[in-house]
Amino acid sequence: MDKGLIIVYYGNGKGKTTAALGVALRAIGYELNVCMIQFIKGEWNYGEIYSSNRLKPNFELVITGKGFVGIIDDDHDFIEHVESSKNALAIAKEKIDSGKYSIVILDEINYALKLGLIEEGEIISLLASKPPEVTVILTGNLLTDKIFQIADLVTEMREIKHPYKKGVKAKKGIDY
């Protein structure tokens, strides 16, 4: 039995979720099952919603977030965001332990940690209890020392240049 890994894609640059989805696409090519749980995204339309249906039955997308926290059109109380992140953790535990998935992606979990929606100890506990054969991928812009220490692979996405700085708006199929 292959040992599953703990993989972290973090940083202020673009490509964290995209990298995780690249792993998912590769795994699905080998008929492996992948589940992606989104901790923050949720109430907007974005490409993963549509493409995930095309990857069934090997890919499951679980949307738990209430949208991006504290931005202009966020109409949820902070406690609602906390509750949705706690729910996402419970779902993550269930999916990781189910025996159905080779890979479970915890999309933007590190962002939920940075915002104080969940605690580092909850993530560490989840990772420590995962079955040995399951790979877990964490994305988001934060990396703590403890998560770094238990991770098998850490990749930092660092922004060098971004079209937003020139006023170019997010592009369908590229940014969302």
Describe the structure.
It is a single chain. The protein is α/β, with parallel strands linked by helices and 176 residues long. It is 36% helix and 17% strand. The chain contains six helices and six strands. The protein has helices at 16-29, 47-54, 78-97, 109-114, 120-128, 145-150, and strands spanning 6-10, 34-38, 59-63, 103-107, 135-140, 153-156. The chain has a six-stranded parallel beta sheet, with helices on both faces. Strand 2, helix 2 (47-54) and strand 3 (59-63) form a beta-alpha-beta unit. The radius of gyration is 16 Å and the shape is globular. The model has no long low-confidence stretch (mean pLDDT 90).
Index terms:
single chain; 6-stranded parallel beta sheet; 176 residues; globular; 6 helices; alpha/beta; 36% helix
Order of helices and strands: EHEHEHEHHEHE
Instruction: Figure out the total of helices.
Output: 6
Strand residue content: 15-25%
Q: Mean pLDDT, as a whole number?
A: 90
Shape: globular
The strand order across the widest sheet is: 3-2-4-5-1-6
Question: How would you summarize this macromolecular structure in one to three sentences?
Answer:
This protein is α/β, with parallel strands linked by helices and 176 residues long.
Please write out the topology:
Layout: E1 6-10, H1 16-29, E2 34-38, H2 47-54, E3 59-63, H3 78-97, E4 103-107, H4 109-114, H5 120-128, E5 135-140, H6 145-150, E6 153-156
Parallel strand pairs: 1-5, 1-6, 2-3, 2-4, 4-5
